[in-house]
Amino acid sequence: MFCYMDSIDGSRLEGKGVVVSGVGVLDKAVVILSFLSEEGPATLAEVVVGTGLSRPTAHRLLSALEAHRLVGRGGGRYSPGVRLSLWGGRAVSLALIEVGRSALVALRDETGESAQLYVREGDLRVCVASVERASGGLRDTVPVGAVLPLDRGSGGKVLLAWAEGGERLSGEKAAELDEVRRRGWAESVAEREAGVASVSAPVFGGGETLRAAVCASGPVSRLGEHPGERLAGPVVAAAREIEEALRRG
Q: Would you say 149 and 192 are in contact if contact means Cβ atoms under 8 Å apart?
């Protein structure tokens, strides 16, 4: 673990890819992002120790970075935010978005419904790719960058069900996620938004690590109370298509 001074001592930044620009608040924010990128998820106390910034400064900057989606927070730990990937982060993340959107177009064309790709950011989920229903009539629109809850909607259920290390849940919710894992997909009816139904499936990377959730959604009036009956097959197939494209890439 590397350590920085609150004054941003340039000699301590050599070899860390952090340049002292002279704009103090920007330099300190970059120090935090660099630390989180190298060391992984960290508590506020760990950020303070690892960067050498004062606790008030670290907390203030982390809060600002979180507001801008440059940092995510889950379980009391901070990590680099999804927005960094959307702006041109790791090539693998960009590849996921690229092949994901191609699969979403095919899913939309097959089902006639809107399609989305979600990734988890802390205790929330973010839409990183979205394709709207092409024809007229009622549609469910989720813009890229939309931040949605994990505890409502089929996409959230998938991201919780296959979360790395598992989620500390009990009772009815735990039983529901067990069922989601058993059948390989999740459905929801009017959970996130009144009148909207959806079906989602997990997208895995190497070592069966969860990468994302692919989703098809539309009005309950068209999909009914059991949207999985019509959408589960195509959605699961789209997830496998994304995985295969990522392996080939």
A: yes
